[in-house]
Amino acid sequence: GVIRHYKFDIRLQNVTRLCHTKRIITVNGKFPGPPIVAREGDRVVVKVVNHVTNNVSFHWHGIRQLQSGWADGPAYITQCPIQTGQSYVYNFTIVGQRGTLFWHAHISWLRATLYGPLIILPKLGETYPFAKPYKEIPILFGEWWNADTEAVISQALQTGAGPNVSDAYTINGLPGPTYNCSTTDTFKLKVKPNKTYLLRLINAALNDDLFLSVANHSLTVVEADAVYVNPFNTNILLISPGQTTNVLLKTKSHTPNATFLISAGPYFTGQGTFDNSTTSGILEYTTQPMSKPLSILKPTLPAINDTNFVANFSQKFRSLANDKFPAKVPQTVQKSFFFTVGLGSNPCPKNQTCQGPNGTKFSATVNNISFALPSRALLQSYFYGKSNGVYATDFPSFPLVQFNYTGTPPNNTHVSNGTKVVVLPFNTSVQVVMQDTSILGAESHPLHLHGYNFFVVGQGSGNFDPAEDPAKFNLVDPVERNTAGVPSGGWLAIRFFADNPGVWFMHCHFDVHLSWGLRMAWIVLDGELPNQKLPPPPSDLPKC
Ligand code: C2O
């Protein structure tokens, strides 16, 4: 492999959307941020220089970070933030991965504007397991706020209420024609007839799963989270925040007399306020004679709460599981976990009025623990043996409070707060069943694990049944990914080998749930061999 050098200058930049000009934090003045392109086996070196007053930190979402946990990036987990005027060099090698991922800021809600594609091409001379596409196009879905997102989340945390929703969904930063003042702010995909395009779809939105569809064109899914999948055709996709999906779009054999909307809108299962607007881009055939007016065809998206579609769609993903790309699914389990994930509440502090449920503050938990970010980074504390006052290792393997998770909610919705981790010996085979709770209403949760891909061996609606459900697990060709949805009012079972030493964050990729505490961390101990140990940190690692 070769070394790919990048420099990220974090600067303010005026950007206008929806007739509203806003000073946003950017990488190199660009919104969305610049793509990182490398090949499997390459080393990526990104020097981040912080010129703004906010602290920053960057995550290379989906990169395994084998023995390079210091470059993973979540603030207060693997590093202290990069402060104003400081810099940090992220340095990692891409091992055994190729496909579409993305990078984003990993502190507070800064990823609202700090995100971009991370594209890993196959090694030189290696081909895709499908015919070479004519062109490859990254398509990032995001959200635009007229307000300052840091104010949105800090106000929500203060009052305990749900945060305001965004003002628009975007495609490559552009809201598209259904929004005010946005006809020119529309993503255009210009294509030729009878060609195959590889669309690298990335959901970088903060708080919404998105349905998406291209009018009158079928899509072939070939990859998820930078792992090839057994190809399947679909007219509609669901893509959750943190997920990436590669699809092939075959254009029509002859120039049609129309343009086609590429549309995305939310899948929403929770309570309270939501946004059911739609962002659109335009698929346009360049061979079209521009003289006659073209009709504009629109796709149909599922209803905003179509949980059946989502359940069926997620079942379609299967690993290739062939000789070249085997599915190394743990067939036996050494450590088994059952995690409840969902919302709860914290009591309102005295002398304050809270706008959350019944005058409390919203909170979100794993096993009823709302994870509090430490004041010093976990990885340093672990590496130097200074966990005292930073974290405890008694994160429960099973929920301490039992109830009928998807049935009648308990009377007491209060959570406990703390910084607790699970310690795993090197190479443990792990199973985690994640159960959505309906304590404050059922909701879907796109769970993301840092430092690993996992296999989705099972999923279902209602309560997980430990007597019946494991017998139905798919241990042959389950999909391998880094982010998967715990279904609203249902459960998800994943397996992985803990073969990467370090401290690894796991959390809901809805930023609002992340901020409320739906997060925890794993510490994976070193193995015996030199290549099974976490090396010491780089000398420029930021200090808290
Ligand atoms: Cu893409 Cu911890 O996140």
TrEMBL record:
Its cofactor is Cu cation. Its main location: secreted. One of its GO terms (cellular component) is apoplast. One of its GO terms (molecular function) is copper ion binding. It is found in: Secreted, Extracellular space, Apoplast. One of its GO terms (biological process) is lignin catabolic process. Residues 12-123, 136-286, 403-526 form the Plastocyanin-like domain. It catalyses: 4 hydroquinone + O2 = 4 benzosemiquinone + 2 H2O. Its EC number is 1.10.3.2. It is an enzyme of class 1 (oxidoreductase). Binds 4 Cu cations per monomer. The keyword DNA-binding does not apply. Keywords: Apoplast, Copper, Glycoprotein, Lignin degradation, Metal-binding, Oxidoreductase, Repeat, Secreted, Signal. Belongs to the multicopper oxidase family. Lignin degradation and detoxification of lignin-derived products. This is Laccase.
